[in-house]
Amino acid sequence: MAIQAFEFPKYRPRPVEVNKSDEGQMSGGNLSHLLGQVSKTSSVEIDNLIGNFEGLRSRLQTDRERIQREIEEYHALAQQVMQLTKIITEGVQKLPAVSRSLDN
To answer: By three-state DSSP, how is residue 97 classified?
Structure first.
């Protein structure tokens, strides 16, 4: 399973439509509507970020569990190698001295 890099979505502010009265001033209703749009946009962006962070948390937990399993498997393998090395060393030490002198 290949690990893929996670990229955060780029923030792109949405254009907000502003209606001005004849005098170039914003009316109370327009201001309320504008604040509502900004609030809704911010809430949606925050919800998206929360969803992204929850996905990252899940991925980190999965990766942590996988790495922990691999460490445990490596530890068990290392223990088996040590036991095998000890068995081989003991076996070689029990060989007759004659065969060792022939090797020299």
So the answer is: helix
